[in-house]
Specification:
The structure is a homodimer. Chain A is α+β, with helices and mostly antiparallel strands. Chain A folds into 2 domains: 3-98, Beta Barrel (OB fold (Dihydrolipoamide Acetyltransferase, E2P)), CATH 2.40.50.140; 119-419, BirA Bifunctional Protein, domain 2 (2-Layer Sandwich), CATH 3.30.930. The first copy, chain A, is 30% helix and 28% strand. In chain A, helix 5 packs across helix 7 (234-255) and helix 5 (126-147) crosses helix 14. Chain A is elongated. Chains A and B meet through strand 2, helix 5, strand 7, strand 8 and strand 9 of A and strand 2, helix 5, strand 7, strand 8 and strand 9 of B.
Chain lengths: 432, 432
């Protein structure tokens, strides 16, 4: 039999007799010629079947191929600019593997719940392919960024004995004779232990929030990458974050342009993601809101609309830093110049995509951290190991977390995070 | 201030005046000279402090530095073959950041529970550094392998509505109004959906087993990578597995030799991990056991001792294939030449490290798969989406799973998997 080839490699097989294996994406017929569009997961290729070439029996056999039927198609590859993907096959043989039953997803419009119920099939569409490949490239480029800069991967535990940020939004499970275990909301505290050990680390794994939020930005299960660096202060943290975002977006633009085209993504905003990113203080952000006539009160957290209005003032992601300490987590270090402010930074994506990064310099003083735990009514015993990081050679350190799904949503230009992950989990969806 | 440098980059700063930041790993004094061993997470460097150079005040100040105290050390870098890491610093300035309280982990022997309770500090030791860096390299090389071969990453869900392999060893959590969600034991079924969509995929994430196994090979939370390839049969699957293992081990030998030295790893067995790996059928494996006088009964699963005896016959990992179908999962395809056998393959690591890979060709016939579900008393409704993969363009496909922690354990030559992951979770351990 002819060599089996993936469609993504067709360019190196022009003029050769090869075999493609895949599924019927589309078909049309024009008298004595049939056109079969085969997809194999790496691309699509049009096969041209001429009755006079393959004979009547094989020509008619093609009519059995319903949408998503699996088959092999052999013939000679030809460059053809007008064809999707740029190549066509002059088919000499068709071998049917499995005829698909009537496929539920058709070119007509389907409701999103109908598609979500069939996510395992919906993933076969070119749009979902494009999103999954952009997601893959984002994750690949993230690891490349840290691996290339001397960071060590530190897989934080999923089962945790205590909550990082309050207990109201935790999933819990019975854990043998040890009582309850909670599913992690963030690997940061463990990342801090890692940074004191390995200097520069990144945590990368799924995180969980049992929030009853039914918005286009919320999943109950989402992936997060969290770098943590010993001896970094807030400015170093912002430097790292902007270099990081530039690297991700540059990688996607370099390696996934065909996918961005499928998604009809306007890449103008992506091409702007170059250092330096604008940096505004929370105070300046409040001034922006007031100048736009919004009745925002100092001390509140930024809402979705506030974030959109602020980000609209800039042509690329904007970093907002030095938030009121009262609305930020206990572990954030206070600004030495103003004890009411935390050395925190959020990065807001353009085009209304909101916060994609949240980070801070961490409190590194033992007594201050202990006082914060008490202020937040957190049990000292559960955090005793975390306090150890301040007992034994404490150093300034900082880090941030980037949410993968929100980043995919922004870079792909999606309306809802449910398309950013293969099998999304939301408060009303646990299947398939 | 002098340029801040990481120890791993010292080779490019010889003769320069630089600053190192880190923690005191060790110190000794000889009259008018002190030697401070600073670790910064990327390596260790010895600073030489001469009283006549730095003056009495600074010389004496060094005495405050207890083990794991944090400090900055500035001076000129010098190549010194006898020094750990190959470089030394002639120190001109010491800046103390934080004096550590009495450090609980000392050079003397500690019990493993004592160390495990202080895992956040234990991670600072050179041995744990080495393991974490080998772990990182294993994971990096795994992703490099698949990314470089056209696979798409497919993150399978952690929350699942049903069990992949029985329900007795599942962690469960309340999931809003949808009842219970179970933590995934394997992303394979979702990987199969991905392979039908994207051709070649790999799932890579944490998996969970609530097994009450208190052995040196069991964690309740462990990471697994699971490639799945459309149109692959069992032989293709074994070809992929052996190429994959060769790539991982070659990468570690190439990039982490200093760490293997720290671990005093005998690398003879690692250097042997070259294709082709030996392949024996289950039947042949049973013959080996009988020839060694073991009273093994055909049809049983291989136990730890059996695996060790079989692997001792080979100088590299061995693939055992075609197991009795009765002891394997419902989704495995039967051998067309013998319906009692499943087209399964396990890869056994040498030196008694046991199974590190388990895989199979999958059942691709709708009616057969449906019958298997019934035989295993699995609810058809929960697997209806999985059956869809056979309704709509079913193709032969195969895949396998590699357990990260067992692989780290084997490559590092460890006695117990608890050291293979930053914060291990076992039936009797959920902290820190």
């Amino acid at each position: 039999m002819a060599t089996k080839v993936y469609i993504e490699n067709l360019s190196t097989h022009v003029g050769e007799n090869i075999t493609l294996q895949g599924w019927l994406y589309n078909a049309r017929s024009s008298g004595k010629i049939k056109f079969l569009l085969l997809r194999d997961g790496t691309g699509v290729c049009q096969g041209v079947i001429v009755k006079a070439v393959v004979g009547e029996e094989m020509f008619n056999r093609c009519d059995q191929l319903t949408q998503e039927s699996s088959f092999k198609m052999s013939g000679t590859v030809r460059a053809e600019q007008r064809a999707p993907g740029g190549y066509e096959m002059d088919v000499t043989n068709i071998e049917i593997i499995s005829v698909a039953k009537e496929y539920p997803i058709t070119p007509k419009e389907h409701g999103v719940e109908f598609l979500a119920d069939r996510r395992h099939l919906w993933l076969r569409s070119s749009r979902q392919h494009a999103i999954m490949r952009v997601r893959h490239e984002i994750i690949r480029s993230i690891r490349e960024f840290f691996d290339g800069r001397g960071f060590t991967l530190l897989d934080a535990p999923i089962f945790t004995p205590a909550a990082c940020e309050g207990t109201s939004t935790l999933f819990e499970t019975e854990y043998f004779d040890l009582g309850k275990a909670f599913l992690t909301q963030s690997g940061q505290l463990y990342g801090e232990a890692g940074a004191m050990s390995l200097g520069k680390v990144y945590v990368f794994g799924p995180t969980f929030r049992a929030e009853k939020s039914k918005t286009r930005r919320h999943l109950t299960e989402f992936w997060m990458v969290e770098p943590e660096v010993a001896f970094n202060d807030l400015n170093d943290n912002m430097d790292l974050a902007e270099e990081f975002l530039e690297h991700i977006v540059t990688s996607v633009l370099k390696n996934r342009m065909p996918e961005l085209k499928v998604l009809e993504r306007n890449i103008k905003f992506l091409e702007n993601v170059k250092r330096p990113l604008p940096r505004v203080t929370y105070d300046e952000a409040v001034e922006i809101l007031h100048s736009k006539g919004l009745p925002f009160e100092w001390g509140n957290d930024l809402g979705g609309t506030d974030e959109t209005v602020i980000s609209e003032q800039f042509d690329r992601p904007v970093m907002v830093h030095r938030y009121p300490a009262a609305i930020k987590a206990f572990y954030m270090k206070r600004d030495p110049n103003n004890d009411k402010l935390a050395l925190a930074v959020d990065v807001l994506a353009p085009e209304g995509y909101g916060e994609i990064i949240g980070g801070s310099q961490r409190e590194d003083d033992y007594d201050t951290l202990l006082a914060r735990l008490k202020e937040h009514n957190l049990p000292q015993e559960a955090f005793d190991w975390y306090l150890d990081l301040r007992r034994f050679g404490s150093v300034p350190h900082a880090g941030f977390g980037l949410g993968i799904e929100r980043t995919v949503s922004w870079i792909c230009g999606l309306d809802h995070v449910r398309e950013t992950i293969p099998f999304p989990r939301m408060i009303y969806r646990l299947t398939p």
